[in-house]
Amino acid sequence: MTVDLRDEDILTALDRADEEERALLILALGESAGEQGPPFLRRLVRDPLPAELGLSALALTPFAERCGSDATPELLEKFTASGRKIDTQRWLLYLIARCADDRAGDAVLAWLTRRLRGEQRGRYADPDDIPLAITYLAQHPNCVRLLEAAGSHLLAMWSELVKDERRWLSRHWNALATGWDATQAPVPPPTAVEVERMRGWLAQTSFFQSRVLPEHVQPILERLNPSRR
């Protein structure tokens, strides 16, 4: 039996939920339908607490899922805030790559450039850093110049990339693996097939998955909303 989640039911239950139930219900707003969920999630996301703390953090993924590109300003603000832990930065970049429009382009290139430098790369390198940034940039035609700059950075340090990074780039942006001379001409952007391959990679990655099964939420809603029984 298909279970349909409604914003109204979830928000009513939130007032009676304990801490654990409240967290689950907020995540469930990413799967529900209605007009009340997105503005409620936006208010939570705009909470001044750091992104690592409180309900603001819980709300980010369902907020991005429900609002899509309209979530770009809030995601970008969180992403560029100072003092963010690197894992939080990756989580926000994942949401940006999935949902944001091209307004995050400059910030994503700046982040990738920092990640490819010296100490930051040595201490905090992760094989998903490059794929996340490149996948975001490649999806937006208005970011083509930023993508060219990213390609030049990667070509200049190709020999320093780890095996997994070179393998991913060879499959998703093969021009970089051919020894392209970026001093003579900008590296060609990924082909349409390669961009679709990036989207497929992004859809399959397990980064911070928070999908909630409606059948797990239904018993909570029935207990906290007696009128639904």
> SSE string, helix = H, strand = E?
HHHHHHHHHHHHH
Strand content: under 5%
Rg over CA atoms, rounded to whole Å, is 20 Å
Count of individual beta strands: 0
**Main β sheet profile:** none
Judged by helices, strands and strand pairing, the structural class is mainly alpha
- Mean pLDDT across the residues is 88
Low-confidence stretches: none
Total helices: the number is 13
Distance between the termini: 16 Å
Approximate helicity band: 55-70%
Shape: elongated
Structure description:
It is a single chain. Helix 2 packs parallel to helix 4, helix 4 (54-67) runs parallel beside helix 6 (86-99) and helix 7 runs parallel beside helix 10 (144-156). The two termini are 16 Å apart. The chain contains 13 helices and no strands. With 229 residues, the protein is an all-alpha fold.
Gist of the model:
With 229 residues, the protein is mostly helical. It is built from 13 helices and no strands. Helix 2 (19-28) runs parallel beside helix 4, helix 4 packs parallel to helix 6 and helix 7 packs antiparallel against helix 9.
What's the structural blueprint in terms of helices and strands?
Elements lengths: L6 H8 L4 H10 L8 H9 L8 H14 L4 H9 L5 H14 L5 H11 L2 H7 L4 H10 L5 H13 L6 H10 L19 H13 L9 H11 L5
For this entry, give a set of tags.
single chain; 229 residues; mainly alpha; 13 helices; elongated
